[in-house]
Design goal:
Blueprint: H1 3-25, H2 29-50, H3 54-65, H4 67-84, H5 89-94, H6 96-124, H7 131-141, H8 146-153, H9 160-188, H10 196-225, H11 231-252, H12 256-271, H13 278-305, H14 307-310, H15 314-341, H16 352-358, H17 364-371, H18 379-408
Helix pairs in contact: 1-2, 1-13, 2-3, 2-13, 4-11, 4-12, 4-13, 4-17, 6-7, 6-9, 6-15, 7-9, 8-9, 9-10, 9-12, 10-11, 10-12, 11-12, 11-13, 15-16, 15-18, 17-18
Transmembrane segments: 32-58, 70-87, 99-119, 131-153, 207-225, 237-267, 297-330, 351-375, 381-401
GO molecular function: potassium:proton antiporter activity; sodium:proton antiporter activity
InterPro entries: Cation/H_exchanger_CPA1, Cation/H_exchanger_TM, Na+/solute_symporter_sf
């Protein structure tokens, strides 16, 4: 199957699933795309028993497409930029301490606790693995997925502080989590083991460099956009900023995801200022919203179809469900400790930690990192476990989040 034919098939499925959801289910789009993608994958696996070779053809096309490269190498840059465009900097300033604590200390705590917990869980199940691969699993599970979280936030009416915490943390902890994962993966690479100091320096270079690169890119985009009033040109400038900026970050060895978040915040807040006309602002926001919707649809359908590649492994899928429960409990602890450390307990609205814990969905980023694990890090164990965590997150957390918010969330002021 050619690349064009495969992409056309994905987009056709996304369009069909979008229609079915809008017409009948009316659930959060990303979650329903994932579930319908899983249903399609089950159909493909079952079809292989009726039409010999059918499953292998589809599996071969999916492997050739390379989900990890598709998301981490290109699509993630667009999705993070589009997501951060709608976040207000002035709202972030009001809760920056909690977002900074949750996105750094919280991610590191969650990585360690999930990693150690998974190590013990596997040991109790008779699977003996070293600690480092389990810590890598913790790193890819620790960050929440902004793509899934932001999609649900569009349909809710949360207290602004909670909404900003959930959106801001999901954007920044995603970028930081990828950096932690990359650092641990380098530690796991055969050869001379880096010292703790060099690992910390690598972490600082990737994270700090990504934030700095995003600020530079955002400022450059701002200077260009404010000097013209031609929305077609400004759309092209933002596309170039995302694609060229992400490629530049990759070449420099700094975090592209963090850079895209910062650049998106800069451009999004400039577009709301007097620097651009109302027409430009309208076209710019609608273009990125439409692109975000299309890429999200294709991404979540593809995530569901990845079950064809992963296959059914009841043992490891069951362990993944147990790991999902562990990750949910750990997330509350990883949020509660930084909250106490920086003295935020009395500054957050009631029940914020419960909402942030349940609203911390896992999605495509976790699955892409798992599918990119080298053979020495036991992907045969952690890929099906990650898929189970993502599916648990979508079904159990995602489909109940809106109702939970109705019970727990304070009425917005």
């Amino acid at each position: 199957m050619s690349l064009f034919s495969f992409a056309a098939t994905l987009l056709t499925l996304a369009a069909l699933f979008s229609y079915l959801n809008a017409r009948f289910f009316r659930q959060p789009a990303g979650i329903m795309f994932l579930l319908l993608g899983v249903a399609a994958a089950v159909g493909v696996l079952a079809g292989g028993h009726v039409v010999p070779g059918f499953t292998n053809v589809v599996r071969g096309a999916l492997v050739q497409f390379d989900f990890t490269e598709f998301l981490m190498g290109s699509v993630l840059s667009f999705l993070l930029f589009a997501g951060s465009l709608h976040v207000r900097v002035d709202a972030l300033k009001a809760v920056w301490r909690s977002i900074a604590a949750y996105s750094t200390v919280g991610v590191l705590l969650a990585t360690g606790l999930v990693g150690v917990g998974t190590y013990e869980l596997l040991h109790l199940s008779g699977v003996e693995l070293p600690l480092l691969p389990c810590l890598l699993f913790g790193a890819l599970i620790a960050p929440t997925d902004p793509i899934a979280v932001l999609g649900i936030l569009k349909t809710t009416n949360l207290d602004k502080k909670i909404e900003t915490n959930l959106a801001g943390e999901s954007l920044f902890n995603d970028g930081f989590g990828v950096v932690v994962f990359a650092t641990l993966l380098e530690l796991a690479t055969p050869g001379e083991a880096p010292s703790a100091g060099s690992a910390a320096l690598l972490l600082l270079r990737e994270a700090g460099g990504g934030l700095l690169a995003g600020a530079v890119l955002g400022y450059a985009g701002y200077r260009l956009i404010r000097t013209v009033d031609h929305f077609q040109t400004e759309v092209i400038v933002t596309l170039a900023l995302v694609m060229g900026g992400y490629a530049l970050c990759h070449a420099l060895g700094v975090s592209g995801p963090l850079a895209m978040v910062v650049a998106g915040l800069a451009i999004g807040n400039v577009s709301r200022s007097e620097a651009v006309s109302d027409t430009t602002r309208d076209y710019l926001e609608k273009f990125w919203e439409a692109l975000d919707e299309v890429l999200n649809a294709v991404l979540f359908v593809l995530m569901g179809l990845e079950l064809v590649v992963i296959g059914f492994s009841p043992f490891f899928l069951g362990l993944g469900v147990a790991a999902a429960v562990l990750a949910l409990l750990v997330r509350y602890v990883a949020l509660a400790l930084p909250t106490r450390l920086v003295g935020l307990s009395k500054k957050l609205p009631p029940r914020t930690l419960a909402i942030l814990s349940w609203g911390g969905l896992r999605g495509g980023i976790s699955l892409a990192l798992a599918l990119g694990l080298p053979a020495s890090m036991h992907p045969e164990v952690f890929v099906p476990m990650t898929f189970a965590v993502v599916l648990f997150s979508a079904v159990v957390q995602g489909l109940t989040l809106k109702r939970l918010l109705g019970w727990l969330a304070p009425v917005p002021a």
